[in-house]
Amino acid sequence: MTFPLNFSNPVPVAVENNLIRVTTLAGEFIKSVIEPGDIVVDATAGTGEDTLLLAQCTGGYGSVYAFDIQKAALEQVKEKLEKNGLESRVVLIHHSHEELAEVLALKGINPSTVKAIVFNLGYLPNGDHHIVTSDKTTLRALEAALTLLAPRGIITVALYPGHPGGQQEAEAVLNWCETLKKPFVAHHFRTLNRKSPPTLVIIQRMR
């Protein structure tokens, strides 16, 4: 495993308005950590981009669990997976991300066994923008994610402070990250000269 990222080979990074997308950057970290056969979680499946990447990285005998509170989102994810022939690799779960620990425990997933957990916060881009993640539910989900994370695993969190409630959620997540103790290490990546840009948090479990 290479961590931090190894950019010795050119990495195709998608851009939006000439800015590197935080979800693409998160994906590069994810690909540097996951191996075929790993257990991974998409805590906020949304349109399914992260779920698709996780399914590709874990191979035919890995386990991917994708959560979303919106049925419409899970239908999009299912369609995307089917188009790529990967639907058999993913378990779609119609629950909020704050219920991670309880739901996965019922599915036999033990603490300290999940290699990567992905959070892409905010709202479903082409869905109901009134249905958004919040600081309280997200912090509960992140606390649960810490208990699930395997040694050398990572949590990625894409934050969007530009929408109503997004700044409060982002600040809550960053403040929470500052309280983390060993074996966890938190990193924050952001664009410095843009107003309220999306930012990325990476949490590593070192051992």
TrEMBL record:
It holds the Pfam family rRNA_methylase. CDD domains: AdoMet_MTases (cd02440). InterPro entries: MnmM_MeTrfase (IPR010719), SAM-dependent_MTases_sf (IPR029063). PANTHER family: S-ADENOSYL-L-METHIONINE-DEPENDENT METHYLTRANSFERASES SUPERFAMILY PROTEIN, TRNA (MNM(5)S(2)U34)-METHYLTRANSFERASE, CHLOROPLASTIC. This is SAM-dependent methyltransferase. It comes from Acetobacterium bakii.
